Amino acid sequence: MTMIREIDYGTSARTSGTPVTLEIDGRSVTVPEGTSVMRAAAEAGIMVPKLCATDHLESFGSCRLCMVEIEGRRGTPASCTTPVAPGMKVATQNDRLARLRKGVMELYISDHPLDCLTCPANGNCELQDMAGTVGLREVRYGFDGANHLKQPKDESNPYFTFDPSKCIVCSRCVRACSEVQGTFALTIDSRGFASMVSPGAGESFMDSECVSCGACVQACPTATLMEKSVIAHGQAEHSVITTCAYCGVGCSFKAEMQGTTVVRMVPHKDGGANEGHSCVKGRFAWGYATHKDRVLHPMVRESTADPWRVVSWEEAIATAARRLKAVQETYGRHAIGGITSSRCTNEEVYVVQKMIRAAFGTNNVDTCARVCHSPTGYGLKQTFGTSAGTQDFRSIDRTDVILVIGANPTDGHPVFGSRMKKRIRAGARLIVADPRRIDLVRSPHVEAAHHLQLRPGSNVALLNAMAHVIVTEGLVDRAFVAERCEADAFARWESFIAEPRNSPEVAERSTGVPAAGIRAAARLYATGGNAAIYYGLGVTEHTQGSTTVMAMANLAMATGNIGRDGVGVNPLRGQNNVQGSCDMGSFPHELPGYRHVSDTAVRTLFEQAWGAPLDPEPGLRIPNMFDAAIGGTFKGLFVQGEDIAQSDPNTAHVTAALGALDCLIVQDLFLNETAAFAHVFFPGTSFLEKDGTFTNAERRINRVRPVIPEKTGKAEWRIVSELATALGYPMHYDTTAQIMDEIARLTPSFAGVSFRRLDEAGSLQWPVTEAAPQGTPIMHADGFMRGRGRFMITEYIATEERPSRDFPLILTTGRILSHYNVGAQTRRTANVAWHPEDILEINAHDAEQRGIRDGDLVSVGSRVGATTLRARISDRMPPGVVYTTFHHPVTGANVVTTDASDWATNCPEYKVTAVQIRLSNQPADRARRHAPIVRVGTAAE
Ligand code: SF4
Ligand code: SF4
Ligand code: SF4
Ligand code: FES
User: Fold this and answer.
1) Would you say residue 250 lies in a domain?
2) Least distant ligand from the CA of 419
3) Which of 96, 156, 287, 422 could be disulfide-bonded to 206 (CB atoms 3.0-4.6 Å)?
4) Is residue 483 part of a domain?
5) Band of the pLDDT at 925, cuts 50, 70, 90?
């Protein structure tokens, strides 16, 4: 349990600078220069009264409550805006200051409703605290004069209210929205007495630019901006620190609780990934965990035509084991396998892959990360030697040139997107390579220096052309290359990349990006100071996904932009534990720690630890499992927390495979689309119930702590252990800490990780070894993990999926801020208010040609399928390219995506599908009907 209220030092810490010693209330204090007097006092344990200052915002100096006396200076300066000076003598308390502060508070309170007892902030209100601190006992001014007490509330946002009658116009909300979130949705309207906080130009919060991140709510010292959940439940009585289960940023939160009820989620100030910020999903969209749709009891059925039967855990586990064994007896050991989930904890994933290898006796294990970031693992391992990003998020604060390619951080990775925007506002230059005009290209106080609006599928051509410019214009960092990289590989790459076919002028034809723009961007990347690459699924989900990752690594090595703060090559991971699920040995060819199953020494290590023989041959990948299922040789599948029927490409193919199985076991929160084909359903636990760890995009291992008891009565790792045991392989753990201890024993990069160390440090970035006991925020600092960096030849090969007469447009897919993946969680929250359905974005020219108007229903047809969506005419899209999200099963965007995939890893080519768009009047109707659930006597109710 953690304190609900943390110390607020008033202004931010200065971490560098000459130490300055001063005296505050007779105490000697030493702090770095640039520190405010207020912060110096707080660090010495002297809390100066304050209202407009808070330590995650720049000081503003408006409330005047923090005034102090400084020897030799006139007046009473504000301590929040006054920097320390050597030898300064400060008094924070005396009669004069007390009188002045009481006067300030009196003015505030004279225009504030005196309803403390019934106010939702009661007990956790800074205004209330300050009234007490300054000893305010009466207010001489009545409420008869002009005041703001009758101002109407704005209840438009589903998660928080705005009650202007309680506003003290401290501007903390406005500054939070600008400085931290970078949305600039709030202003202070008018002046003097009439000053008022306003979202947009007098709009409601819901109609404004607000993205509902909640930073303003967190910053508000009064009940003006207040979570509706707190209004409903009251203030929390304890809190637990845990980790968001949505995206790969991995934000830390304090779950504020009343017993087993979550009152609110507050981003944790000490969270290594988020430092006190969050987005709408993590802060507000956790209601799915208690949604009525959750299945809380295990269920079985003989065939998918039968209704589900609610049964005891014993019966469900025995049924699963019996069916899996029956398949193996008839079709052989390798006729079964499993898929691990990047939404589950490291410990849960580890036990599933262990069960598959040791109890199933096969390496037929793959992960949903196959369909997103497997090219990252491959590409970075080939070039640098590790399957992970190179930097911590903080590193961007030292970046001068940011290259964002195939990622949309403000929607997909919002907290990091805000950090990126802050760095750009502070002067970093931005290059965006994306077919779509994402928000980063132009948003308040942010403008990309270059938007390379390339055609989907031409990433490699673009990056090769940038490298061509760097090589042919003499911009290579030769000293870095000579010292750190393989000479032969570099020489081969240099002559390859210098060939005219890799020039920007040739690339212009395949990418559609003017050669001059490519040249300018390449020069900026190579010469603009520290340059860092951030990328997402727009890089990996292509037939050349792995080639693109290697092309980025080549660029970074050629310019020496690797191995220190501010540079690097960084995947923005989609799901919360993509990094972890890959680290934990979820690929059919790799044991935990990315070690090949054919390596006898490694296999022996695991065989001895696990007490079971392991197969030296790699198993099936997900697409091979589907093909084998359709071919009749693969008959049993365990799916952990993943809706493959909705998330994998070419839905018709996937469902045909699932329908051909004799035993499908699904472990999930909800009866998802995949469960329609299942024979056994194990109810899963939400992140609020889990005990374990997630690993985020910066290799940061964060603790996930149980906030509420398991609603299903059984942790997922226990179910898996019991299933393995029922299959004849005894597996037992008492706690998840024991699982992590086993991972640490068997995985060199986790050697120094344990729950105890994580609790002490807050989080650790792997590798955590004897040489790096505190973890490794920046990789490859003294040499690449593979020894020398290896340049790889990255031949551009255009995808087969090209526009044609029948399918003249290219469909590309992505995410939106308010939703997450297939939407199973976010659709069960109030986030649907922002995005009730998937939308097809189409350029005005393409729409006009087809007679399509904004809001029309259109049919989207590809070579493999068709679906119906509502069209939105958008100038974000270039002609010839359309875009949609895939958050709603009813539209089933993956009905149209093909099963083309990355040459090295089989990551599907979601980002390029040739389609035709036509007007339609048929709403999509693909919602699968689930068989009814019947409850029978044996149920463990
Ligand atoms: S919720 Fe976030 S985006 Fe909306 S006004 Fe507040 S700080 Fe700005
Ligand atoms: S809404 Fe809250 S944070 Fe914003 S100005 Fe008013 S009191 Fe300050
Ligand atoms: S969804 Fe991502 S950015 Fe948003 S709070 Fe969760 S981890 Fe942070
Ligand atoms: S806290 Fe310093 S002026 Fe408000």
Assistant:
1) no
2) 3
3) 156
4) yes
5) very low
